[in-house]
Amino acid sequence: MIFNPQKYSIEDIPNHPFIDKNEILSILNRNENTSVSAVRDIISKSMCGHRLSMYDAAALIKSDSEECTDLILDSAKEIKRQIYGNRMVIFAPLYVGNSCINNCAYCGFRSSNTEIIRRTLTNDELSSEVGSLIEAGHKRLILVYGEHPKYDAEFIAESVRRVYGISHSQGDIRRVNINAAPFDTNSFRTIKSAGIGTYQIFQETYDPDSYRKYHLGGKKSDYNYRLTALNRAMEAGIDDVGIGALLGLYDWRFELLSMIRHANHLEACYNVGPHTVSFPRIKNASNVETRYDWGVGDKDFIRFIAILRLAIPYAGLILTAREPSELRDSILDYGITQIDGGTNLEIGGYSSERKSQQDLNREQFRLNDERPLKEVVKYLVKSGQVPSFCTACYRKGRTGEDFMKLSTTGEIKNYCAVNSLLTFAEYLEDFTDTGLYARGWDLINRERGNFVLEQRFRVILESGIDKIKKGERNICL
Ligand code: SAM
Ligand code: SF4
Predict the structure, then answer these.
(1) CA gap 170, 186 in Å, rounded
(2) What is the mean pLDDT of residues 263-282?
(3) What is d(CA 463, CA 458) in angstroms, rounded to the nearest whole number?
(4) Which one in 58, 181, 213, 221 has a CA-CA gap of 20 to 30 Å to 148?
(5) What DSSP element (H or E) covers 112?
(6) H-helix or E-strand spanning residue 94
(7) CA of 99, nearest ligand number
(8) Is the pTM here over 0.70, yes or no?
């Protein structure tokens, strides 16, 4: 993959804000109705391993004819196949606490929401939650926290350590990511020391004016402090970071170009782009009255995902259970590489009984895909995608620049192919009933036959599968 450095009016200096609204709008508004041939040229650039510029992405945004849309969607599918192959990484979010000092207008946890019941998991509750997730078959979690003085760096590090430390007869959690407030560099060092996987933080909207409108109080009202959070994380040694925008607060086209700008900034400063990109659409939340002028319809949402896939090919793209199951299933192909399964947003919800109305009041927003993990896995198998519980890159130290080298060249596909099959084989052996077991092994055997793998990868795959069948666990490449 070849990165084309570009000059922007704001230079890429670590810890300095890098979004210039006027510049982004001028790039966005330069073209009208991009021709089919121009779209083909941009796509072939992406297919040849070149990163797209913001100008290229803006041209794709301005090409919404059916023919151009089909070209963009087909090539997003192809790029995903080339870089990541046929696997879909699965994780679960785990909400640790919903106390919050901020007042984000769209969020059920906001400080002015008096309807919501505030709760922070005790150590025992955290262990029960993790136990239930392990029993469902999960291996990777993202811990989510409101922003509150009690959720300081020590608290977060301690909760991460506790999750790694839980031993259970049915397995373990092997990668803990976090989604939490921005910290200073020293606090990020404390969090890093607990061995987190990805640190994820969403800018929500990159438009400073809309940001001001929706973040009405608390520390989060500081746009620039949030924008530069990942610089401080990188400086603290957290080289695996996730960016995101909450779609609905401002024009999705602007957010898309801004995320490319954010990726460019991180690459320019640290040689490492975002490990993941998230793009939740705003959903109903407890006691939220705000109307959103910039809601994104399904057709634009799919184009957004596909253009992002072409523009930042190396990044993992995450689609969460905020979206309804039918829509999720139908758009995975266009570039999504990670999904959650069996999600429960209620604090303590994985290990407790059915939800009452009171319980629903603890959720941050409404969930639209409530399928248990097993159902999500069944769908993936039926559609020929390999469910992956892989945590190998993190455990083998392939993060930051090392990961970038593999993902920008597409070499990562070999690792993903082997590790997805090995972790899925474990899942089948440990968590499935006869029907899914047989269908899952059919898929593994088909994929084993189809992969063109170098001998060293082939040996690890075949011997790993034999070992898993004999009861060995935690084998990865
Ligand atoms: N307090 C941390 C923060 O604000 O960064 C943790 C984040 S929050 C628990 C995770 C993300 O959920 C937010 O960054 C936001 O993008 C998203 N979110 C909040 N309200 C939402 C809603 N109503 N619909 C969909 N996503 C929402
Ligand atoms: Fe608090 Fe985060 Fe919700 Fe804002 S988005 S109110 S900071 S939990």
Answers:
(1) 36
(2) 96
(3) 8
(4) 213
(5) none
(6) strand 87-97
(7) 2
(8) yes
